[in-house]
């Protein structure tokens, strides 16, 4: 088996997104397919590394595209908000708060009542939400490394793969 065919097998697995009916392939099915390729551990490791790097690049590209699309979304929402405010201002200026055209209905109405809280210092305690305490994991780990013992908490050491 030559290197081109080997790479081709992994390229096919990389390209697997949907089954024959157009449903997304589960990660378990995808991993089973990847693991079913019978190669030496070194060849498989190189192929996994190439796939990991490719998927990391894909994730980065998707993140950038999401950021770009979020910018477009925000820009368009701002345009909508400005146009609606401008139209409402014009309607109120000419005191015409309700009318119909051939294709649209326009109406300025009151929104539901809401609170305008400038300061919360005088709000009775019964209306205050008190957040649940959070564990300072960094400080607790440091203290436990120095010998502090806490029931129900232990320091663990995990391992992970690094590819360079």
From TrEMBL:
Organism (species): Weissella coleopterorum
Coiled coil region boundaries: 73-100
Designated name of the protein: Siphovirus Gp157 family protein
UniProt KW keywords: Coiled coil
Domain of life: Bacteria
Database matches in InterPro entries: Sipho_Gp157
Keyword Coiled coil: yes
